[in-house]
């Protein structure tokens, strides 16, 4: 019944040039076969100046990963490191304070559990952080469909945030291999947080975005501590994973320290976007009334 | 408590150049104020050749809509009209047949209700069609976080499909203003379909993608009928909505017929992607094992 076959080997290797470099020869023909009937070939991308887009990473273990991720040039970016890391939203209303103390309360067990293992801590943080953008984006998408109206770009902004956080997670997975019980913890926390945030966003998007704003403030703090440990030499400043070099357009000589710097800058941008979104709700407006900061990295 | 104020008027109008054209003067200052503290300004985009990206639409009613949607150049595209519209997946397994007849059964009441009102029919179709991509993308995102592994680009592909369908919906909303009971029907159907598809995707992604594949085949058929009615003169070939001209890079003189043509081509691409995804599952593989057709329009 199926119109493709993974097993059989194709003959025209030339047609698959686009997917190079491919680590294993066998995979090449298989991919050729899958694309054959439905005609969904991998695409070739060009840079802003018209030249072909090339991958920086050629480490065998990552080639397949990044290549099948197929980061398009415009999906990668140079992080804006000049962003103000100190901005803070003073909690004023009851809801603000609730959001603030929820985040502070969540930090306590995290501090106890991970202590100074900032690599694993970052991993945990990123699994949780990738949830709000996806949930918010999905809920706005459904709302947009129900009301037949546009979202002012906020769907895209929130989904982009989720993608950005997922890239953070992929990056730290390369750096810190988690133990089984840490993995189990992360899965549990994600499941609980996903449902809680889903409900929270339906009840009060104002509160939900404010909470994420504070979560990002904590993330900035956490990465600053990470940097301190790196500078003290307590954590080894290993070379940056290839995936990070591609995603943030880092030089090939980049190290873990450079990665933490760009990730921290990302978190500062998320902080701005989410406090901004909450502020819009505080004004009794809907998100779509203010243009979304698409491409704000 | 809030750090922005919508009410007060800002003084430096010059800083808001990027959001031009803005329909109402008052809005300009308000937007300035919102962006002020969190520093999330709207961005300026350039085309592939380096010149500034301009909007084609200047109809007052749409200016705010498209501008606040902020389609980036690479979010718009020229549809590939050469795609084969006749491709069909012959249902072979029991699951295939179930998917096929589910879609056929769903078509019956739609035929009865909308009959030859293809504008409203398209609207209904698009509200439903925008659900699977979002649900699938979200579930793959969560899976990616849980397993700490990449998705081979499938998250992006499915979310892009959802966005594409939402743009279809926005376009047809401009063409066919729905009556209140049609709106109510659409909301009900969406609510039921969202939950059903969510469950369906968890139980069997193989079935879910196959069903969407058949849904798209029906969509192609439906738009072909739409074109026939347009050619017969039963439906007036009005000028294309500005949003469609921007999104599909159509000439300013484009008509509804041109829009239906590009939308139909989109559906054919969705058909390929979803049958392809189902085929991968039929081979006992996971989606991430085959590179996703990102940017396949
Ligand atoms: Fe992050
Ligand atoms: Fe973040
Ligand atoms: Fe569609
Ligand atoms: Fe479609």
Write a structural description.
Two copies of one chain form a homodimer. By secondary structure, chain A is mainly alpha-helical. In chain A, 61% of the residues lie in helices and 0% in strands. Chain A has helices at 25-38, 60-69, 94-114, 118-147, 154-175, 180-203, 205-232, 242-247, 256-282. The model of chain A is unreliable at 1-36, 42-47 and 51-70 (pLDDT under 50).
Q: Mean pLDDT across all residues of chain A, rounded?
A: 76
Considering DSSP H and I runs of 4 or more, what fraction of the residues of chain A is helical?
Answer: 55-70%
How many helices of chain A in DSSP terms? 9
Interface with most residues: A-B, 83 and 83 residues
Instruction: Give the CA-based shape of chain A.
Output: globular
The structure class of chain A reads mainly alpha
The largest sheet of chain A, given as strand count, sense and whether it forms a barrel, is: none
Bound molecule types: fe (ii) ion
Q: In whole angstroms, how far apart are the ends of chain A?
A: 46 Å
Oligomerization category of the chains in this entry: homodimer
Sheet-strand content of chain A, in percent, reads under 5%
Low-confidence stretches of chain A: 1-36, 42-47, 51-70
Topology, number of strands of chain A = 0
Radius of gyration of chain A: 21 Å
Compressed to H and E, one letter per element, the order of chain A equals HHHHHHHHH
